[in-house]
Amino acid sequence: MTTLDSSQAPTLLRHNPLLKLWRTPVFNRVFNAALPYAPDPVRQWVERKRTLARKVDLQKLVSQRSRLVPESAFREVLARGLETLIARQGREAIGDYLEFGVYNGTSLTCMYRELKASGLDHVRLIGFDSFQGLPPDAHLEDEGRWRPGSCCSSLSLTTAVLEAENVDLSRVTLVPGWFRDTLNRDTINRHEMRRASVIMIDCDVYSAAKDALNFCAPLIDGHALLIFDEYWPHGLDGKLAGERRAFAEFLDEWGCFEAQSFGSYIRRSEAFLITRTF
Ligand SMILES: C[S@@+](CC[C@H](N)C(=O)[O-])C[C@H]1O[C@@H](n2cnc3c(N)ncnc32)[C@H](O)[C@@H]1O
Q: Does ligand 1 have an atom closer than 6 angstroms to the CB of 232?
């Protein structure tokens, strides 16, 4: 069996002429067509090289990924939020962290680190995402602000990022799929969700944010920190749209929550301490 550590692998792939040839489109088609007729050892060798190449590609994507959330400023809001929640309802009452829009995991990693720093080892992190980017009809909302398929990170890439950041995956549940299919009672029961204490809405699009907020409503008990990453969407000049519109409607329609401003970590973001009043 080929064993390579991750630092060796890219160099070996770069310098292996046969693999370079195999990756050129014409030869790749010829090799692939001939492969089923090759003897077992050749096919096994190819499979090993393919697995290695996939690993190397993934590592490259992990190291070159974009970070959409400013880490230290975001962590500062989380730290303050956790402190406030602990002061108001005690450590044991802190429930799940729910994130709507995980992309490649920057904000989820920040929350993981902040929970560790606060010693809140019982809090689970549950992330919802299509892992296919923004929905196909995203351009029909919010005055055409969004591009369908943008902000796309596959489940395997996001998992690789979390692993590279030393996030304990046993504390993380990633729920792949479109919100309209995943945000339902079935999911609440399957993951035995009882209380959400910190909620990160980072799915940009109005309808997605609305689905996320409605999903969270029955899980907000007492207080929760609610964070919107794109509360003031760039290019919409303060119009009531996107996550802000979803939140305004949510407060109005449910009628049982009070929201208190909790600052922001970037110009377009906004955080709130939300309290169930009955
Ligand atoms: C701005 S990115 C999230 C950034 C992330 N919080 C980070 O730290 O990098 C928005 C994400 O929302 C997801 N998303 C938006 N609308 C969705 C929907 N209706 N269903 C599922 N995922 C959705 C996209 O797939 C994308 O990954």
A: no
Return the best residue to mutate from 68, 69, 130 for the ligand 1 pocket (most ligand atoms within 8 A of CB): 130
The rounded Å distance from CA 133 to ligand 1 centre is 6
What sign has the CA pseudo-torsion 99, 244, 252, 179?
negative
Q: What is the DSSP letter of 219?
A: G
β-sheet with 96-100: strand ranges across: 172-176, 125-129, 96-100, 196-201, 223-228, 270-276, 257-261
Which DSSP string do the residues of 10-24 spell out, in sequence order? HHHHHH-HHHHHHHS
Query: Which of 108, 175, 204 should be mutated for ligand 1, with most atoms under 8 A from CB?
Result: 204
**Residue 243: DSSP 8-state:** H
Q: Are 199 and 224 spatial neighbours (Cβ–Cβ below 8 Å)? A: yes
> Ligand 1 centroid to 205 CA: how many Å?
9
Q: Tokens 């909790």 appear where?
A: 262
0.85 cut: is pTM over it? yes
What number does the ligand 1 atom closest to the CA of 153 have? Answer: 27
| Buried-state track 159-172, b at ≥16 Cβ within 10 A, e below 16 | bbbbebeebeeebb
Which pLDDT tens digit goes with each residue over 191-219?
999 999 999 999 999 999 999 999 999 99
Residues 92 and 159: their CA atoms lie apart, in Å, by 28
204 Cβ below 6 A of ligand 1: yes
Mind listing the pLDDT tens digit for each residue in 97-112? 999 999 999 999 999 9
DSSP 175: E
Cβ atoms within 10 A of the Cβ of 211, count? 21
- Are 202 and 242 in contact by the 8 Å Cβ rule? The answer is no
Q: Is the CB of 243 under 6 A from ligand 1?
A: no
